[in-house]
Amino acid sequence: MAEKKRARSGSPSKRRKKPGGASTGLAATELQAAAPPHEVAELHQTIDQDGGKVLAVYREPYGGRWLVLAALPIDLVEPTPYQRNLSETHVRKLETVIGKIGRFLDPIIAVRLSKPDHAAKYWTPNGHHRLSAMRTLGAKSIIAIVVPEAAAAYQILALNTEKAHNLREKALEVIRMYKELAQLDDSTEESYALEFEEPALITLGLCYEERPRFSGGAYHPVLKRVDDFLTRPMREAIATRRERARTVLALDDEIVRQVEALKAKGLTSPYLKSFVVARVNPIRFRPKDAPPLSFDEALDRMLKAAVKFNPDKIKLDDLAKSGGAPDDAE
């Protein structure tokens, strides 16, 4: 009976989606079976005028949208200005592999997004490391799948295939995109839900900008539950986002104070900050049928609990039972 009870209470494992009953998309013979629309033909001509070479024009097999496979002059391609910084280790690895096998086999994604203050005419949302490696190796051109829709330049998190993002990288990319998109029109945050992935990343991005060594992983589980997309235009909502970031950083100041007090007692653990945050988390033992807390309510309760936190009551056994991710696992 005990074994059966444990099995029921354990979290159910996620099952992989089964293939759909009916096939969808295009057959292989259909990818080039129609004439491309005017805007795609125009892009073909523009690439040629830029000194590139179109290798194929086709529709991708799932959604049937048009794409252009092209060789682009490498000097005209740049990473989108709001994505994560280069990982030197990853770039060096790519340089070694490409140089060793003598082949570049993984095209980057690019959009033509010419801006008057930039020499580059093509922006890649997911090819920063490959582009850098090819430049270092002295390549004159790079193969790209050019997407006609400029919106693809902002779909960094969805399109990235190079290197898994950690939380800091995700949050910084999101806030950089946010600031860029806020200047374009009166769109709300929810309009870019795919690009931003989740509202907590916007707030965390501002925290990381203010405090680069901020341990966002300790607060992310709480923020995922209480942060939400704001309904005002982003150019106005950014003020609320900054206020939320200040609230999180003020809480972090108090948490750090309590962590230092635990260290002074001789308690050492890579989980100290996560442990204290979990102890003051008002959602942790909240009944499932209780109304959800807003961002302000949750953070206000956390700050009050952090101020009242008593390090003298914490024992080494308490830390050992806490588990979780290390505070610096960013």
UniProtKB/TrEMBL annotation:
The lineage of its organism: Bacteria, Pseudomonadati, Nitrospirota, Nitrospiria, Nitrospirales. It comes from Nitrospira moscoviensis. Residues 1-27 are annotated as: Disordered. Transmembrane segments: none annotated. Residues 70-161 form the ParB-like N-terminal domain. This is ParB-like N-terminal domain-containing protein. InterPro entries: ParB/Sulfiredoxin_sf (IPR036086), ParB_N (IPR003115). Residues 1-19 have a biased composition (Basic residues). SUPFAM superfamilies: ParB/Sulfiredoxin (SSF110849). It comes from the Bacteria.
